[in-house]
Amino acid sequence: MENYWNSAISFDEYIQIANERLENPANQNEIEYKPYYELGLQRMNRTLKKLVIDEEQVNELKSKNFDGKILIISEAWCGDASATVPALVKFFEGHNEVKIFLRDSDSSLIEQFLTNGTQSIPKVIILDKEFKVKNSWGPRPKFGHDLLLKYKADPESYTKDMFYNDLQIYYSRNRGKDAIQEILELL
To answer: How far is Cα 87 from Cα 140, in angstroms, rounded to an integer?
Structure first.
């Protein structure tokens, strides 16, 4: 895990790479994902502008005396990531170091943290001081997961568009608070 940590990037670098891929796509995949990078950057900027850190959650973090690190496997084009990664980074800022590992740059890390056999992101890896995995979380809070299950159970009544709409409304109102809480419970 230490090697992955050492090759991971800061949140500022993550945003910079997303902007570069949006403005100057380097390959066909980046060209096809251009609208997703644009939307992801808009959502992340909105979250950063409107985010209010919950002091009760900060106090809970302090009470846990967690002295490890947070490694997030992510990509800026991902809707779930754009809703949660900025909130997590800002929440842990000043308390625990957070880095981001780009899933698509090296799949060997995400392969160790599959969600139902898929490389779903974001995936948060909670590391202790010695880079041992303490726990992991992701790719979305329980409420978002429940919406996905509702869609999968009856996609004719609860369509993909309805699922995506409800998920984005949830994310825009919740601003990462549930994700932060679920991760706090894993520390």
So the answer is: 13
Domains and CATH numbers, the chain: 2-139+176-186 (3.40.30.10)
Q: Give the pLDDT confidence of 141-186 residue by residue, as tens digits.
A: 999 999 999 999 999 999 999 999 999 999 999 999 999 999 999 9
CB 74 within 8 A of CB 86: no
| DSSP H helices in 24-78 | 28-32, 34-50, 55-64
- The CA dihedral of 81, 85, 86, 90, to the nearest 10 degrees, is 170
Q: Which of 80, 105, 111 is nearest to 21 (CA)?
A: 105
Enter the pTM of the model: 0.95
Q: Rounded to the nearest 10 degrees, what angle do helices 55-64 and 177-186 cross at? A: 10
